[in-house]
Write a structure and sequence with these properties.
Blueprint: E1 2-6, E2 11-16, E3 19-24, E4 27-31, E5 38-42, E6 45-51, E7 54-60, E8 63-68, E9 71-76, E10 79-84
Parallel strand pairs: 1-9
Antiparallel strand pairs: 1-2, 3-4, 3-6, 5-8, 6-7, 7-10, 8-9
């Protein structure tokens, strides 16, 4: 799957991931390959995405995520913190 994380200021990440977890407004949810199309609002929280065996974390201040045809676009209001776990 291809994930792109964008803020109003810059592009944070663009690349292939094996899974991604988002802090949805109604609760956390995970996206895997061939996930059904979805658009969801996000609360402030941790976005986790896995590249091979490495887990990366980005704390967003909210936003919107769209999943369609193994492409995930996250429009984040802002980034609070980035790290690799």
């Amino acid at each position: 799957m291809r994930l792109e994380i964008i803020t109003p200021d810059k592009s944070i990440f663009k690349g292939e991931v094996t899974s991604a977890t988002f802090p949805g407004t109604l609760g956390s949810f995970q996206v895997l390959k061939d996930h059904a199309p979805i658009i969801s609002t996000l609360e402030q929280g941790v976005v986790k995405y896995k590249i091979n065996d490495a887990v990366h974390e980005v704390v967003v201040s909210g936003g919107i995520v769209e999943v369609l045809d193994n492409n995930i676009i996250l429009l984040a209001e802002g980034i609070v913190k980035e790290e690799v776990a």
